[in-house]
C-alpha cells in the first residue's frame, strides 16, 4: 500500500474557541478554520489534546466535528480524535460516530492506567479492527506517562488499518529508529513543532502542529522546505520559532497558542478549568516574540 499522501505535510491540531460563558464559540471556530485553510494547511485535526478534548463533552465533540466538516471550504482531509485509557469506551465511541467526512482517526496511547507494551498493542489492534477509517497512533509520554516503544509501533504498523503515528516523545533516537524500521507506507508525523526539520531530515513525513493554528502559512513554509530538501531555508524558519515554541507551553497547551489567536483577533484566549487563561506576563512575552519574528 502506498503512503497516504493526504496526511503528508502540516495538519493543524485545531484549538476549541470558547466564549465568556464557557460555551463553544462557533464564529471563532469558523475564523480559525478559514485562517488555517487560507494559510495552506494540508489537513485538519479535530478534537486532539490541543482542542481541550478532556473538557469537551461527547455532544460538543460531535457538534464541533459536524461544524468543521460543514465549514471545510477546501474539503481538506479531516482527522478526528477518538482516544481513551478505556478501550471499550473508544470502541463504543467509534460505533456511535458518523464518519461521513472523516478521513482518519487519531488515537492517543492509553494514559493513567499504565498498560504494558503488549497491552498497548492489544488496545490499538481492537481500535483498528473496529474503525471504519484509518487509524493514526499518538505517542505523547509527557501526558500519558508511558512511551510506545519502537518495537511496539513497528508491530502495530503491520495492521492494515493503522497507517501512521504522531510522535511527541521528543526522542531523536527513537525517531531515527522508526525511520529505519517502519514500513515505507507508514506515516511518520512529528508531534513536536520544534523538531520538524530534524525529524524530516531522517525520513519523517510532516507534523501535526499546534503553531499552525495561528501561523499556518509560516509553518507550512517551514515544513515543506524540509520535505523538499531545502534544509537551509527550513532551519532558518525553525530557529525563528525556537523561543516562541518554548513560550507556548510554559502555562500548558493550548493556553499559549490561544493567546496568540486572541492577539491576532481570531478568538478569545478563554480555556476551560482546570486550565487558566494566559497570564499577563506570558501574553506580553508572546506578543513581543510575534512582533520580533514578524508573525503579526
Description:
This protein has 13 helices and 8 strands. It has 296 residues and is an alpha/beta fold. It has a single domain (8-228), classed as Aldolase class I (TIM Barrel). An 8-stranded parallel barrel has the order 1-2-3-4-5-6-7-8, surrounded by 6 helices. β6, α7 and β7 form a beta-alpha-beta unit. The relative contact order is 0.14. The mean pLDDT is 97. GO terms for molecular function: 4-hydroxy-tetrahydrodipicolinate synthase activity. Pyruvate binds at residues 50, 208. It is found in: Cytoplasm.
Topology:
Layout (H helix, E strand, L loop, with lengths): L8 E5 L12 H13 L4 E4 L11 H13 L7 E4 L5 H10 L7 E5 L8 H14 L4 E5 L1 H4 L5 H8 L4 E6 L4 H10 L5 E4 L5 H6 L4 E4 L6 H12 L3 H10 L1 H7 L6 H9 L16 H13 L4
Parallel strand pairs: 1-2, 1-8, 2-3, 3-4, 4-5, 5-6, 6-7, 7-8
Helix pairs in contact: 3-4, 4-6, 9-10, 11-13, 12-13
Mean pLDDT: 97
Structural class comes to alpha/beta
Radius of gyration: 18 Å
- Low confidence ranges: none
* Known CATH architecture: Alpha-Beta Barrel
